[in-house]
Write a structure and sequence with these properties.
3 strands, alpha+beta
């Protein structure tokens, strides 16, 4: 999976997983974006695994 800002404005994250592409608004009000940035510890009571924070790459330049 690749996480990359869509543009220099850094307001949208492009999530690429094989041929699937989706976009996540890059806002601290967005729970999915916060989960990408902050991760989540494991919850042994509910059995949920930990989620590690991801590295969001800079947008591709026009030359790339």
């Amino acid at each position: 999976m690749e996480f990359r800002f869509e543009s220099a404005a850094r307001d949208v994250v492009r999530v690429t997983d094989g041929s699937d592409i989706r976009f996540i608004p890059a806002s601290t009000d967005n729970a999915e974006y916060r989960l990408l940035c902050d991760g989540r510890p494991a919850d042994p009571v509910s059995g949920l695994p930990a989620i590690e924070p991801v590295i969001i790459l800079e947008p591709l330049s026009e030359e790339e």
